[in-house]
Structure of Dps family protein:
Amino acid sequence: MAVALKKVEGKKDFVTENWHQKAREIQKWGDVVQDLPHRLDAKVRADMCKKLNQLLADSIQLRDMYKKHHWQVAGPTFMQLHLLFDKHFEQQVEMVDTIAERIQLLGGVSIAMGGDVAEVTKIPAPPRGREEVPVQIARLLEAHKTIMQDCHDIAEAADEAGDDGTNDMVVSDILRGNELQSWFIGQHLVDMPLTYAE
């Protein structure tokens, strides 16, 4: 149903006047809000945000790899992996949101756009085309390994800086989830016969 916009005499057309607005950024990338009512000083928060943005970029890359592999998986384990990759994608969506919200809570700016993520992530991009299942799984396992190392490094730095919230988040919400996903997909690389016992 179309909505007609009524022009009021003497007033500017709201849509025409407000459609293409431009303004300065309200917070630059890398800056943290200085006067945030937080017990951690701005220097500590800025350092944590930088580390968390690396984790966020790597997590977004992994999240998107799960969706790519969900769409492109093939072979005798198609159904199991198709469903598993999508389940892991949804869990990564939640983890990505948790990391981004922690950055915002600390007064920082979360990385968000695909092009920016591609410039920052340490996880290599897969090719656009379809790959065999063992290669898909190997890529995912390497990505999980990178993220788990990110979590370890951030947890250690957060502990030293007294940032209990970041320490708890990366261990409880991100590290443990990635460990579990890594275990689930790693079991698909175990060499076991499907129809006979050795």
